[in-house]
Amino acid sequence: RQTRVSRSAGLVFLEGLRLCADALRSGITPVQALIADSAAAVPACRKLMAGLPQTVEQISLPDPLFNRLCATENPQGVALVCRSPLLSDPAGTPVADGLYLLAEGVQDPGNLGTMIRTADAFAFDGVLLTSGTVYPFNDKVLRAAMGSCFHIPLLQMPDIAAAAGWLATGPRPVPLLAADMAGRDMLAAPLPVPAALVIGNEARGLSAAARQLCSQSISIAMPGQAESLNAAAASAILCHELMRCRLQMRHPGQ
């Protein structure tokens, strides 16, 4: 599982046919592959194991031992141990018209997983994570992200200042946009591109440092009776609007 030891070693434990297959399709090369004795008789499991490079160590385990390694109630009998694709030292600079999602202290695994999946769906160029944000290869994050953790660059940043510093190194500095209920309506004017949307902690919101670094705050009009949206829902709406603005910039008049 995703223990401190595996994190420090840069390893990720993936379980289940769909997640393992998606990681392999995304170019992830496992270090080890585990299969439960009962799964050896399942055609889909045998096919996955047979398609692995010869350099991958394959280990068969009794079902009780395999099940103890897994977080799900009904494991499918296959798992991979992979090198973590989480980047702690970004290579290169931000994209000129890039869109980024920045999670500052997001702690709910379901929220973060959905946010990563949203950024992937809307063709964002990366997800930045500051310290205090839940580990992106937590079991629950992986399930919520539905494979998107392997489709989009994930960048671990020590803090919001470091994230802002890297975002400023591109051919066009990337401004930070704060998701804030007190900000201007996102539809009042086109959102800037490039941009990095900053989503704060579920309970505390954005830190004072993040608010100082954001060039503007944007909000979502909510004429109904709900007081607020959770981090995942808010980020989905704002990310879609940013994607729309970038498409209009790239294809004016369409």
Would you count the extended β strands for me? Answer: 10
Number of domains: 2
- Strand neighbour order, sheet with most strands: 7-6-5-9-8-10
Largest sheet: 6 strands, parallel
Shape: elongated
Instruction: Kindly report the CATH topology of the largest domain.
Output: Alpha/beta knot
Task: Report the sheet-strand fraction.
Answer: 15-25%
| Name of the top-level CATH class of the largest domain | Alpha Beta
Q: What is the CATH architecture descriptor of the largest domain? A: 3-Layer(aba) Sandwich
Secondary-structure blueprint of this entry?
Layout: H1 4-8, E1 11-15, H2 17-25, E2 30-36, H3 43-50, E3 57-61, H4 63-69, E4 78-83, E5 99-103, H5 109-121, E6 126-130, H6 139-145, E7 154-157, H7 160-167, E8 176-185, E9 195-199, H8 208-213, E10 216-219, H9 231-250
Parallel strand pairs: 2-3, 5-6, 5-9, 6-7, 8-9, 8-10
Antiparallel strand pairs: 1-4, 2-4
Helix pairs in contact: 5-6, 5-9
